[in-house]
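[Meeting: bench + compute handoff]

Bench side (C.D.) handed over the final construct sequence. Compute side (W.E.) agreed to return the predicted structure before the next meeting so the bench team could plan truncations. Sequence as handed over:
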Amino acid sequence: MLYKKCTLAMISIFFITGNISAQDLGIGPQVGYYKAKDADGSFMFGAAIRMHITPALGVEGSINYKQESYDYVTVKSWPVLVTGFFYPIPIAYGSIGAGWYNTTLDYKKQELGNIVVGIKDKTTQEFGWHFGAGAELPVGSNTTLAGDIRYVFLDYDFEEIPGSDSINSNFYIITASLLFGL
């Protein structure tokens, strides 16, 4: 049953995207700034591939690296995002999507007198979702500059740290992508 659904989805995508030109598909670097309410803001970097399915609909896949610090833990994450776009006008869009966050929690060691207290680091996979808005501007005949802001709902579980249930780890991302047409 799953095989039939996947095959049907791939055939549908083929027919929907059969007339896509080089201007409708772009790939390139992505940089951004993100900030969680209870963490320091920082920069992230990665790559994105974006496709216009119709003049009003598009989709993007991206992978980035980011790192943020809270009081007793450093969070390193490699988010893989899939985002859908709706274009009410040709250069502006609204977005909604989901992400898989491969996350390493690096707990800081604490010294209490002559004793070093530490919690073992751990790597987890988290699921989150996001929404936002942005704009695309053509830069030359085959290049697009895209910029947006997205709010991400991803609540890390710092269960090893007492009192951490009050930490808000949802965050916003401001990104810029330079997409080269294929």
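W.E. noted at the follow-up: The first strand starts at residue 25 and ends at 36. C.D. will use this when planning the next construct.
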